[in-house]
């Protein structure tokens, strides 16, 4: 029994490593994980910092949590694209012919997603740090924020993985993922104070779940307080996994 478990973990680790290599050697995937967070942090910070908050230094505490969440949403969407591509190019058929665990390809993808999410988080936060941003609450709370946001990003990866299994093509997954990410981020408090928006947009922003994630991150980074919003974010991640993990595994088994 232990030998079978070890064999399964080795299968998952091997496929996770394979998926990470695909990310490193795929310009589009690498752009989402590393380049995009850096570009958006630099672009939004220097272009809009003075206009919105007087200078870049005052704007960084606002934008860094926003760019962090945007980077994680973008990285999480790669799960659906990769799964859809593997399904439609016959890679999963090849996996089924190998003496490996049936769930290893799916589990390997989602394990690789955790590392992709951490890479995206490090890229965005490092850029903010080099621009002069410092978390007022200290490094310990920064670690808490990264862990919470990565956990939520990984939970969202299950949604994208489910969609990747049922979508007709990887291109469709990429298009829907991009539109979803843009809507969630730009209709939130990621880049501008909510009070500056028209009333009807303020209503949309307040019901946007990304707004609560960013607010929780700012509270922890600036004040060192685990707020009610942080609990909502954590429980939302648990709920997403509880719903979409069984659904994704069910659809995956039917297709494999």
Structure commentary:
The protein has 10 helices and no strands. By secondary structure, it is an all-alpha fold. The protein has one domain. The two termini are 24 Å apart.
Task: Assign an overall shape.
Answer: elongated
**H and E string:** HHHHHHHHHH
Radius of gyration: 19 Å
Q: Which secondary-structure class do the elements indicate?
A: mainly alpha
**Ends: how far apart?**
24 Å
Number of strands: 0
Number of spatially distinct domains: 1
Regions with little confidence, pLDDT below 50 for 5+ residues: none
Mean pLDDT over all positions = 84
Q: Helicity, in percent?
A: over 70%
Query: Beta-strand percentage?
Result: under 5%
> What can be said about the biggest beta sheet?
none
Task: Count helical runs.
Answer: 10
Annotation keywords:
mainly alpha
Write the layout of secondary structure elements.
Blueprint: H1 2-25, H2 27-53, H3 56-89, H4 91-96, H5 104-130, H6 139-166, H7 170-186, H8 199-207, H9 209-223, H10 228-255
Helix pairs in contact: 1-2, 1-5, 2-3, 2-5, 3-5, 3-6, 3-7, 3-9, 5-6, 6-9, 6-10, 9-10
Summarize this entry quickly.
By secondary structure, the protein is mainly alpha-helical. It contains ten helices and no strands. It has helices spanning 2-25, 27-53, 56-89, 91-96, 104-130, 139-166, 170-186, 199-207, 209-223, 228-255.
């Amino acid at each position: 029994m232990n030998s079978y478990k070890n064999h399964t973990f080795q299968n998952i680790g091997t496929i996770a490593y394979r998926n990470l290599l695909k990310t490193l050697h795929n310009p589009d995937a690498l752009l989402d994980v590393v380049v995009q967070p850096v570009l958006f942090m630099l672009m939004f910070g220097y272009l809009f910092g003075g206009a919105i908050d007087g200078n870049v230094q005052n704007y960084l505490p606002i934008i860094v949590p926003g760019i962090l969440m945007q980077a994680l949403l973008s990285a999480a969407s790669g799960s659906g694209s990769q799964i859809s591509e593997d399904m439609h190019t016959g890679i999963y058929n090849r996996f089924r012919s190998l003496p490996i665990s049936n769930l290893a390809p799916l589990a390997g993808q989602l394990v690789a997603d955790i590392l992709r999410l951490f890479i995206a988080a490090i890229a965005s936060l490092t850029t903010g740090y080099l621009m002069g941003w410092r978390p007022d609450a200290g490094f310990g709370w920064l670690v808490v924020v990264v862990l919470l946001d990565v956990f939520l990003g990984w939970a969202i990866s299950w949604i994208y993985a489910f969609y990747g299994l049922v979508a007709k093509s990887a291109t469709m997954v990429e298009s829907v993922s991009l539109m979803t990410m843009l809507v969630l981020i730009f209709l939130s408090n990621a880049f501008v104070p909510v009070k500056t928006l028209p009333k009807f947009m303020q209503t949309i922003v307040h019901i946007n779940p990304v707004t609560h994630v960013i607010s929780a991150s700012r509270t922890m980074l600036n004040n060192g307080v685990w707020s009610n919003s942080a609990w909502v974010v954590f429980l939302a991640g648990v709920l997403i996994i509880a719903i979409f993990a069984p659904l994704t595994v069910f659809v995956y088994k039917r297709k494999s």
